[in-house]
Write a structure and sequence with these properties.
Elements: H1 2-19, H2 37-53, E1 60-61, H3 63-79, H4 87-98, E2 103-109, H5 114-123, H6 125-131, E3 137-144, E4 150-157
Parallel strand pairs: 1-3
Antiparallel strand pairs: 2-4, 3-4
């Protein structure tokens, strides 16, 4: 009987310890922040204006790309770092959902304006390649973390 009581106490302790643990980042709604829509629109406008000056087509806004861009921006804010973590999965999901043949991504952090972000992207060969790429659709997510730092994700696809 004493052994059963010890076992029950141990099980109860484990259950209580697990219930007080942290919730996974992916499912925490508290980590989602509001979009800086004016910055998103301004940055998208700059990208399309730039493409047009080079004779490239205007990129169409994609709600699907916007959802994935927002998820990734939330993830970067949660981790506190700029990254492309999970890009393969995002690209695969977008490809499946819209039958895309190519997907690309630009990210940024800490730039205070859409103009500065755009200028930094165009000055970077990899980012510029995506902006000038043979894509048809895009979406830009811009959000601010609790410290006031902006995080940017732009997804492109065709």
């Amino acid at each position: 009987m004493k052994m059963r009581l010890q076992y029950a106490v141990l099980v109860l302790f484990v259950l209580l310890a697990n219930s007080c643990g942290k919730e996974p980042l992916e499912s925490s709604a508290e980590l989602e922040t509001e979009n800086a829509v004016p910055l998103e629109q301004e940055l998208l406008g700059m990208v399309n204006d730039y493409r047009n000056t080079l004779g490239y087509s205007t990129l169409e806004f994609s709600p699907i790309a916007y959802d994935y861009a927002n998820q990734h921006t939330d993830y970067m804010i949660a981790t506190g770092s700029i990254n492309h973590d999970g890009f393969t999965s995002r690209a695969s999901n977008i490809s499946t959902e819209v039958n895309a043949s190519a997907v690309a991504e630009n990210v940024a952090k800490d730039y205070p304006t859409a103009k500065v972000t755009f200028e930094k992207w165009v000055a970077s060969s990899g980012h510029r390649k995506n902006i000038e790429g043979d894509f048809t659709h895009t979406a830009v997510s811009v959000k601010k973390d609790a410290s006031g730092h902006y995080y940017y994700t732009q997804l492109f696809y065709r």
